[in-house]
Design brief:
Layout (H helix, E strand, L loop, with lengths): L8 E6 L3 E7 L16 E5 L1 H12 L3 E7 L3 H13 L6 E3 L5 E7 L5 E6 L8 H6 L1 H5 L1 E7 L4 H9 L6 E5 L8 H4 L2 E6 L1 H8 L7 H10 L4 E5 L5 E5 L2 E5 L12 H14 L4 H15 L49
Parallel strand pairs: 1-4, 1-8, 2-6, 4-5, 8-9, 9-10, 10-11
Antiparallel strand pairs: 2-3, 6-7, 11-12, 12-13
Helix pairs in contact: 1-2, 1-9, 7-8, 9-10
């Protein structure tokens, strides 16, 4: 692959591309039990594929480095990426069947998921080294953990001077110090924060952010669902509120948030400002069903939320304590 323009890509996403195979059930089966379900629905997914589509739909010049199988699911994923405007020159084909996620969903929206990584597990450090032109042309690189950890480590080593790494450790796994040291930011939800920190996690996002910074990343973003996000670096922590929306399906909302955050950081925005935009993207994503099908265009975003007064905050277990909040003037508008 060859790239001429150093600034060609606002965002390079390195990660997984899966076909999501979804069946609705009245109740999820017990061990040894068979239940009947709805017609099978097949959707493009995978955290890497989701992030690339979300960023491209917002207007970012986006490329994807991933691996899919030479099969119908692989063609579905490539078609979805191209339809969104993603450059798929870095998508490798073959080596194993396309990864799939087998998903059962009950009437309450609870789901059970089994992932067969397939070709995602064959994305290697050598593939990363061979994609040097993509890395040289990217302002921001975003990566997750649905590909081999050794490949993620190679991504961290392959960054061009001045390129920023955004890492979402999902599914959670211990990260080498050399990877943590270049994360700017490390983006986690509550489950991922607690998994990475173990007994040292504490009880509030403020504590999680402080403890995660001690592991070595340059900055941290803790996503808080409907409560927004907490951003933290060596200068302190700020909570960014989310607009109020009626949630229909949260699938892929975290991927949409991370993609939007990465893109806006690449445009030169500060961490809190970029997160202010990203929470609006995540909020829009939960108002539609599915992952990629729900990702918004710029005109679909809700208005920015007002900075909450301390008395309006949710419980301390969900967000920082009131005493930890900055004054409203300290939080930039998205």
């Amino acid at each position: 692959m060859h790239v001429n323009d150093h600034d060609r890509y606002d965002l390079l996403v390195v990660g997984s591309a899966n076909a999501d195979l979804v069946v609705g059930v009245e109740r999820r089966p017990a061990p040894g039990e068979t239940v009947l379900g709805s017609d099978l629905a097949v959707h493009p997914g995978g955290k890497g594929g989701n992030q690339a589509v979300a960023a491209a739909r917002l207007g970012a010049r986006t490329a994807l480095l991933a691996r899919v199988g030479d099969d119908a699911h692989g063609r579905l994923l490539l078609d979805s990426q191209r339809a969104a405007g993603v450059d798929t020159a870095g998508v490798l084909v073959g080596g194993a069947p396309t990864g799939v996620a087998l998903i059962t969903v009950d009437p309450s929206g609870d789901n059970s998921i089994v992932v067969s990584p397939g070709a995602n597990a064959r994305l290697t450090p050598q593939d990363v080294r061979a994609a040097g032109a993509l890395f040289g042309a990217a302002r921001i690189v975003s990566v997750q953990l649905e590909i081999p950890l050794e490949t993620v480590a190679e991504v961290a080593a392959a960054l061009a001077p001045g390129t920023r790494l955004v890492l979402n450790p999902s599914p959670p796994a211990p990260l080498p110090e050399r990877v943590l040291a270049v994360c700017d930011p490390l983006v986690v939800n509550e489950h991922e924060a607690r998994s990475l920190l173990g007994a040292a996690a504490g009880t509030t996002p403020q504590e999680w952010a402080r403890a995660l910074l001690e592991l070595g990343p340059r900055s941290v973003v803790v996503t808080l669902g409907a409560a927004g996000a907490l951003v933290a670096d060596s200068g302190g922590a700020v909570r960014v509120p989310s607009p109020e929306v009626e949630a229909v399906d949260t699938t892929g909302a975290g991927d949409a948030f991370t993609a939007a955050l990465a893109w806006r950081l690449g445009r030169g925005e500060g961490l809190a400002e970029a997160a202010g935009y990203a929470v609006r993207v995540g909020a829009a994503a939960v108002t539609g069903r599915g992952a990629q099908a729900s990702f918004p265009a710029p005109g679909d975003l809700p208005d920015a939320a007002e900075v909450p007064a301390p008395d309006d905050l949710p419980d301390a277990a969900e967000v920082p304590a009131p005493g930890d909040l900055p004054d409203a003037a300290e939080v930039p508008a998205p």
